[in-house]
Design brief:
Blueprint (H helix, E strand, L loop, with lengths): L2 H5 L3 H4 L4 H11 L5 H19 L8 H33 L6 H10 L2 H4 L5 H8 L9 H4 L2 H33 L3 H29 L1
Helix pairs in contact: 3-10, 4-5, 4-6, 5-6, 5-11, 6-10, 10-11
């Protein structure tokens, strides 16, 4: 692929199949381009997913869940971008990472584009399943083979996209850090451990004191 071809990439589409070339084009042209919007949209998507997996509908109305998603979700997405970006850049330096704060954030933001594409899927899901998307008990789906089969179909599509989003994340982080995808995985694991290890130490210390 020559330079002219790379400049023609549409990152909203090419990130799916050409993540390295796409993120390189982004950081070569404008590494801060749309990162705030992308993080906010990812936050909405992630909030809806967590509300579903945690059966938040058992305690809250559907309207409340949607309000939380569109108000708190974007804030959570931005916090994740900036805190996560700082941790990835910091721990990446331990293993030879070359990314700057802006390029690492760009990698995290643009790698979430496949996840953002799942947002429109919520519209038919809400129309078909309503609040049962967020409840532990699903009597309407349980009594309808068509609804249950449709739900499983949507779930499968979202699972495949989630897995591919993670692959894209590894490739994007690897590109900006000068890593292979496997080394990028190590970078991400280090960033997670920086958070988890102190929490575990504190938890064990408090357990010992009690």
């Amino acid at each position: 692929m020559n330079e002219r071809d790379e400049k023609a990439l549409n990152p909203w589409i090419s990130i799916w199949t050409k993540p390295r070339a796409t993120i390189q084009q982004v950081i070569d042209t404008d590494p801060i381009r749309l990162v705030v919007l992308l993080a906010a949209l990812q936050g909405i998507s992630s909030t809806l997913d967590r509300a579903s997996t945690r059966s938040l509908g058992d305690k809250h109305e559907l309207s409340t869940i949607l309000l939380i998603a569109v108000t708190i979700g974007p804030l959570a997405g931005l916090l994740s971008l900036y805190i996560g970006g700082a941790l990835v850049r910091w721990t990446g330096k331990w293993i030879g990472g070359i990314g700057s704060s802006a390029t690492v954030r760009a990698a995290l933001a643009w790698s979430g584009v496949p996840l953002i594409w799942t947002l429109p899927i919520w519209i038919p899901e809400l129309l078909l399943f309503g609040d049962e998307l967020f409840t532990s008990e699903t009597p309407r789906m349980d009594s309808s083979g068509t609804l249950l089969f449709s739900y499983l179909g949507f779930t499968l599509v979202e699972l495949v996209i989630a897995i591919w989003t993670f692959v894209v994340l590894l490739k994007c982080v690897g590109q900006v850090q000068g890593f292979t995808a496997w080394k990028a995985l190590g970078n991400l694991l280090l960033a997670v451990l920086v958070i988890i290890v102190p929490i575990l130490i504190i938890a064990f210390a408090m357990a010992g004191l009690s």
